[in-house]
Design goal:
The protein is mostly helical and 137 residues long. It has one domain. The chain contains 4 helices and 2 strands. α1 crosses α2 and α1 packs across α4. It is globular.
Length: 137
């Protein structure tokens, strides 16, 4: 399906998009007083003690591979729109129905809207990074 180089680029794109786009928007929202949580949390994440921001970026890298597999053959506006929509929906669904119950987090409208917004921007970031890495449909 993918060449190893493309897999690596997609992982790096997801990793970078998490740190720059997802966390960057989170920090802007935090500075604007819209969310209480600041970005780039460096507290250790269990079980390995890796900083939470790096752990999130790792998962963003894995999601980047999945997202690229779904959008790579699209061109033009469809490519960007699909990156936005699938980036918003797919990771959010996993967060809401897998991660939040494990962490005993109650789902509410703020978390729903926040996840869609942050993950949608992340999806655009993945598509942009892949474009900058020279990956095209």
């Amino acid at each position: 399906m993918f060449k190893p180089k493309t897999l690596l680029f997609a992982f790096i794109a997801g990793f970078i998009a998490t740190l720059l786009f997802h966390q960057g928007l989170l920090q802007l929202l935090h500075l604007a007083g819209k969310v209480p949580v600041a970005a780039w949390n460096m507290e250790p994440a269990p079980p390995l003690g890796v900083p939470k921001a790096i752990s999130l970026a790792f998962w963003g890298g894995l999601w980047g591979i999945a997202l690229w597999a779904l959008i790579r053959k699209r061109t033009g506006m469809a490519h960007w729109l699909l990156a936005l929509v699938l980036g918003a929906i797919l990771p959010s669904l996993v967060a809401w129905f897998v991660v939040f119950p494990i962490k005993d987090i109650t789902l509410n409208s703020t978390l729903i809207g926040g996840a869609l917004l942050l993950n949608g921007v992340w999806g655009l970031g993945v598509a942009l990074c892949m474009r900058l890495f020279g990956q095209r449909a």
